[in-house]
């Protein structure tokens, strides 16, 4: 198929499998193609098998693809582990000195990666460059695109020198010449010239960092944990350049405590972690909710429980995110659907945290953190940033946030001049002050308190304050954007998903509609508070609803069943690998 190909590279950690795949994806995107990647790698530092898959096309792609069109095996184990994912009639490229593949329904190209690297380039570490040169010679993109990326990466490397640069470029050239002279191409896959476009190439974690900075986050505290560490490293690098502050805390508990301290001081603040670290933050999520302090907490989900599989994906933290904490603890829960949405939604997360003065839990996952996509540059426009509703002595100022200011409501028995930090307003949102010269003081406590912040344990006060805190969720539900239906207005089968499955679901919907089936999908990115009206309308408009989830227990399906009485058709996958569009299409066809 001209101008679209899905290439999977299998090898050992240390062979340049992942770095080679990254170079291929970046070069293809810079040349003008759309790209979508997926990777797996070992959790242990001692290494192990890894895989990189990139789907390259001249039109937008929404999933990693059902199968590999081209499988490149850098060793025998890679062949054994991945040949089952090669499509019928696809291409297998392998090193004949390492193994001989079994006969199968695929085209084989033998390329001596090891020999070229050792004998002709005289540097075995260029094996992945040999692989890239062979890819260019047989499938594209042009070698110049790869060279540009290699030169850019090596010029930034402290370990690089002129000799290393020369060896890498030689490996690319020799391998391309080898396949052009020794191999007769008999497959249909070729990336020809395309019109270049103004796109940005980045992964989910990089998009989160960019969005947080655009949202004027100026404080980050965290502790390293896979797959969220890239967010911490990105913020550590970028925050000082915009006058912000970074802290690597001693653990996740200290990280969130520090974030809440910064938030109390009036600074937009966040942390990022994964499941085990998220568990440790539970008590402080409650403090954020009770003290009504804004905080953004990214949970880059990985397969669990416990340490689980740190480098594999799962969507299994939803129930915990919705309910973590003792007592009734209002919070907002959001889940991005793709790389562009990571940027847009983290900005919205900060806006909602500041507006509603509560913790916002942001559920990414391992596949999305490392997924590279080419995103149109217009997505990264400068956002309009709104301030907190501030107390100015008599009433709330709107802080240039575009929301209507609310009058202060003075509680019974309170001094007229006393600052009521937790004033029981119609929306539940109370004006906040920031410590400093002339600002009214208040105590941000985890104890139940009255409107002025004084500890109060009376049943009437607890009832009033609990209702006030949860009223903010009702306000948020009324103000937040509604999810849009995708597909047929008269669909008989509906799909409700969340998180990183959106593109795969939409591709399955497109394929089903092309077969004449009536299908639609709904993909809310805000999961607490749920968009009740949109979901109820969607459920009532179809005969059956499928809920695909990368978890065992069907956590979204459980939530929809409890709240709306939905008896969903559950489609669960929990091996650590994302859905393919073909898997969801089969489910559609089975229930239609």
TrEMBL record:
Residues covered by the Pyruvate/ketoisovalerate oxidoreductase catalytic domain: 14-175
Entry keywords, A to Z: Oxidoreductase, Pyruvate
Protein origin, superkingdom: Bacteria
Start and end residues of each Pyruvate flavodoxin/ferredoxin oxidoreductase pyrimidine binding domain: 211-467
Domain Pyruvate:ferredoxin oxidoreductase core: 491-557
Protein name: Pyruvate ferredoxin oxidoreductase
Provenance organism: Dictyobacter halimunensis
Lineage start: Bacteria, Bacillati, Chloroflexota, Ktedonobacteria, Ktedonobacterales
């Amino acid at each position: 198929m001209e101008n679209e190909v899905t290439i999977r590279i299998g090898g050992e950690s240390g062979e340049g499998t992942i770095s080679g795949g990254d170079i291929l994806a970046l070069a293809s995107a810079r040349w003008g193609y759309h790209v979508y990647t997926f990777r797996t790698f070992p959790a242990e530092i001692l290494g192990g098998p890894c895989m990189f898959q990139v789907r390259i096309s001249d039109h937008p792609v929404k999933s990693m693809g059902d199968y590999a069109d081209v499988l490149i095996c850098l060793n025998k184990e890679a062949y054994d582990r991945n040949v089952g994912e090669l499509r019928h009639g696809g291409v297998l490229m392998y090193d004949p000195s390492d193994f001989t593949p079994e006969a199968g329904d695929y085209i084989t190209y033998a390329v001596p990666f090891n020999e070229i690297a050792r004998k002709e380039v005289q540097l075995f570490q260029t094996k992945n460059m040999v692989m890239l040169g062979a890819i260019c010679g047989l499938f594209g993109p042009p070698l110049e695109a790869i060279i540009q990326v290699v030169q850019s990466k090596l010029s930034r490397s402290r370990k690089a020198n002129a000799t290393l640069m020369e060896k890498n470029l030689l490996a690319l050239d020799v391998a391309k010449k080898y396949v052009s002279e020794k191999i007769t191409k008999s497959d249909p896959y070729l990336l020809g010239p395309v019109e270049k476009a103004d796109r940005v190439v980045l992964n989910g974690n990089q998009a989160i960092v960019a969005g947080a900075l655009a949202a004027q986050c100026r404080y980050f505290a965290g502790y390293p944990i896979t797959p969220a560490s890239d967010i911490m490293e990105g913020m550590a690098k970028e925050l000082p350049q915009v006058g912000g502050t970074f802290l690597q805390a001693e653990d996740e508990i200290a990280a969130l405590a520090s974030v809440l301290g910064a938030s109390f001081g009036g600074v937009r603040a966040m942390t990022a972690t994964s499941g085990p670290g998220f568990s440790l933050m539970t008590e402080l999520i409650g403090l954020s909710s009770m003290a009504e302090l804004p905080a953004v907490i990214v949970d880059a989900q990985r397969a669990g429980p416990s340490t689980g599989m740190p480098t594999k994906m799962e969507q299994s933290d939803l129930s915990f995110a919705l309910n973590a904490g003792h007592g009734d603890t209002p919070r907002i829960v959001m889940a991005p659907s793709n790389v562009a949405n990571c940027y847009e939604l983290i900005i919205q997360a900060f806006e909602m945290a500041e507006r509603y003065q509560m913790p916002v839990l942001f559920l990414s996952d391992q596949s999305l953190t490392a997924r590279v996509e080419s995103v149109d540059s217009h997505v990264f426009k400068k956002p309009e940033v709104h301030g907190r509703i501030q107390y100015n002595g008599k009433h709330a100022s709107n802080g240039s946030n575009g929301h209507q200011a609310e009058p202060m409501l003075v509680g019974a028995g309170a001094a007229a001049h006393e600052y009521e930090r937790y004033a029981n307003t119609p929306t539940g949102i109370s004006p906040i002050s920031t410590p400093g010269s002339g600002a009214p003081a208040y105590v941000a406590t985890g104890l139940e308190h009255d409107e002025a912040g004084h500890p109060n344990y009376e049943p009437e006060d607890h009832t009033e304050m609990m209702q006030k805190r949860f009223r903010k969720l009702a306000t948020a539900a009324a103000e937040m954007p509604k999810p849009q239906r995708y597909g047929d207005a008269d669909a008989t089968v509906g799909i409700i998903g969340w998180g990183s499955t959106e593109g795969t679901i939409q591709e399955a919907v497109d394929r089903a509609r092309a077969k004449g089936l009536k299908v639609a999908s709904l993909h809310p990115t805000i999961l607490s508070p749920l968009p009740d009206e949109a979901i109820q309308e969607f459920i009532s408009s179809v005969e059956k609803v499928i809920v695909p989830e990368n978890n065992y227990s069907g956590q979204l399906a459980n939530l929809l069943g409890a709240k709306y009485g939905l008896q969903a058709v559950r489609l669960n996958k929990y091996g650590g690998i994302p859905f393919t569009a073909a898997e969801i299409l089969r489910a559609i066809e089975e229930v239609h």
